[in-house]
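User: I need a structural model of Neutral metalloproteinase from Parvularcula dongshanensis for a docking pre-check later this week. Nothing fancy, just the predicted structure tokens so I can convert them on my end. Input:
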Amino acid sequence: MCRTPLHCILPPYILTRIAQHGTPAAQRRALHQLLADPTLRIVRASTAGPIRGQVARLRAAADTTPPPTPLRTIRDAGGTMQAPGPGVARREGEAPTGDAAVDEAYEGLGATFDLYWHAYERNSIDGEGLPLDATVHYGQDYANAFWDGRQMVFGDGDGEYFRRFTIAVDIMGHELTHGVIEAEAGLAYYNQSGALNESLADVFGALVKQRALGQSAERADWLIGAGLFTDAVNGSALRSMAEPGTAFDDPVLGRDPQPAHMDDFVFTLEDNGGVHVNSGIPNKAFHLAALSIGGNAWDGAGRVWYHALLDPLVTANTDFAGFARVTARVAERLYGRDSEEATAVGDAWAAVGVV
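Assistant: Understood. Predicted structure tokens for Neutral metalloproteinase:
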């Protein structure tokens, strides 16, 4: 059931479009990646155990003295498909190297650690100080980034349609959040639970970027992967949480297929039942709730979504409606039944047709 798959930031439907409509060189690269990624998923599912996190979900952060710091190690694959990479490029506390991918990965892992600790008092991905490892320069012209259950892995992009995958801090927040989800609810990676999995990764990826930039909900662009496309692509990002379905419209990549309302829910067998497509619906709900609550989204709506993820009622097969009910309960518990925050959460899910 792909409960613990290899999570890639780039949806397979984009690679399929490139394989069909890209330049001959781009078609070859996309076909190679479409064949290679399922193999990586099989290895991931068969070898990686669950992250220990559930034992810490209710542990008081006050027990950690002094405040924790990340433990980062960035390795260099040197263009091979070896992960972890054979060479250590930068360790925790070391100075920048001048290699953009190495230094961006280091900073992105730190920004993600900072969000989870300072906003939610969570000590790393597992809640218990898990070291944060990453491998950069993975593969030749590899256009993707993924969390393999133990570490982040980044390709350098193909240079034709995609830049290096360390360029957007929200990509790192997104992928590392898959580890948080795996440690807590373990949302199964198919159909609605899988789309919810992808949405939660987008939500906290966006919050990592917003906190790093000091942006309020009103000032944020709500784009996932902005800056990843080269100038050859007619698009601003991989996804838009504010306006799902508008992130790109390109002759090669096609048009962003994400719906923003349950009326347009996509029924498909591809992409594990459309996990990267239908995630636009809960993404839009979070965006609406964050704007309605106002201020810093990681303090308002983000706090509700984080505590909902930790709620025992959110299990492997939770669907959109089930998660909406839990967020409503959590908002009432945190802010009061008749609070503006609780009303904003309920209205947001109603606006996208989930409740």
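Before docking, keep this in mind: Residues 24-47 form the longest helix (24 residues).
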